[in-house]
Amino acid sequence: MKIKLLQADITTLNVDAIVNAANSSLLGGGGVDGAIHRKGGSEILEACKKIRTRQGKCNTGEAVITTAGKLPSKFVIHTVGPVWNNGGKNKKELLANCYKNSLDLAIEHNIKTIVFPNISTGIYKFPKRLAAEIAIKTVATYEYKNKIDELYFCCFDQENYEIYHELLKNEHT
Ligand code: AR6
């Protein structure tokens, strides 16, 4: 698996799957979640509602998959990052679970190219550097990483981009 870095609006990317930093309601919100639902159209929301009927809410650290509606990608994987809320012992593990569970779903759906936003580092206020360290470590040590061809970290804000740029310099995958 190649790990690559991008600075872009994730909704513009033409890959097999983009990941959404959702909330447990799966009904949309602000940030990247708002952009994905806005640009992807009502098909994504309808698919999320069906999942809610089947399994209820999506817990923190878990992931679900839907159509990407009008977006150029094939799928959207919605995962719920932890709210930082002054930290706490399991926040790091919950964030790592977002990456692992999203990759598990990707493999189940034969997804070869996947893009992650910087989960939890916006409205949920997870410290950006710590979140980047967890994200990179989790994907680089993911057990089935060879089943994915390309994994992109899509940074939106300059601060995240610079952090990833620095951390990925030393990453050989
Ligand atoms: N493309 C790529 N990244 C983006 C985009 C975009 N179009 N827009 C924002 N980001 P956030 P969270 C970056 O707040 O912290 C929602 O209301 C942004 O710069 O989207 O996990 C949900 O419904 C930041 O680095 O997600 C939840 O309630 C990163 O995406 C809550 O926010 C994540 O910021 C989730 O909060």
From TrEMBL:
InterPro entries reported in the protein's UniProt record: Macro_dom (IPR002589), Macro_dom-like (IPR043472)
Identification of the protein by name: Macro domain-containing protein
SMART domains attached to this UniProt entry: A1pp
Protein species of origin: Kordia algicida OT-1
Domain Macro: residue ranges: 1-172
Highest taxon above the source species: Bacteria
